[in-house]
Design a protein that fits this description.
The protein is mostly helical. It has 6 helices and no strands.
Length: 212
């Protein structure tokens, strides 16, 4: 039994002439706990951004960009970096504003609204990561295949005809690989943010009971 549960238990035992003080104590604890959770969401998003930036700096060396030029993917890669960083900065800013807004809360009703907004922001962020990863994967694969096809057709005596079964097998393999990849990404983000979102949801339910 945590501190909040003990406080609620004591609240029920108290005299009915002192409900306002008990309400304030419980609300203050829920407010502090919610503020701490949202702060951690903001901190984790920054750490995730820094980790991604370090990996990009390490992996995107001269050999990487040479490969991008070979497959005519330089512009695509630059566009992905710019769009990804811009949208990630936007979500980090939203996480920060959510934290500031919750930290300045004055009423239980407003805190409930801000908890719902924070949960929605996190869900949109996870959806963005999944959709952008899927699109980047498919577009990058298309550019690589196009490059190989153009290279092979340019060679004398090459035959680029594929049977229907071969195409179906290839497409099926791509869908399977993409599905496994997105599932792994989804599981990672559910692990990172899911626990915090569940705690926020529990705080929301406690606030709802408090208001009733």
């Amino acid at each position: 039994m945590d501190e909040l549960d003990l406080l609620k238990k004591d609240w029920k035992k108290q005299d009915k002439t002192l409900p306002h003080l008990s309400y304030d104590e419980i609300y203050k604890m829920l407010w502090k706990r919610s503020s701490s959770i949202v702060k951690w969401i903001f901190i984790i998003s920054i750490l995730e951004f820094l980790l991604g930036t370090i990996l990009n700096l390490v992996l995107a060396d001269d050999e990487y960009w040479e490969k991008m030029r070979e497959f005519d993917m330089t512009e695509f890669s630059i566009a992905v970096y710019i769009i990804s960083y811009a949208i990630t900065f936007y979500f980090i800013y939203k996480f920060y504003t959510n934290y500031r807004r919750i930290s300045a809360n004055a009423t239980a009703k407003k805190l409930m609204e801000d908890i719902l907004k924070t949960r929605k922001t996190v869900k949109f962020y996870i959806a963005f990561v999944l959709v952008s990863s899927g699109i980047s994967f498919l577009v990058g694969l298309f550019l690589v295949i196009r490059h190989h096809m153009q290279t092979m057709t340019a060679e004398p005596g090459s035959n680029m005809q594929f049977e229907t079964n071969q195409w179906l097998l290839f497409i099926g393999a791509i869908i399977l690989i993409l599905g496994v990849f997105l599932l792994i990404v989804w599981c990672i983000y559910r692990l990172i943010y899911g626990i915090l979102l569940k705690r926020l949801q529990r705080n929301y339910r406690e606030l709802k009971k408090l208001e009733m």
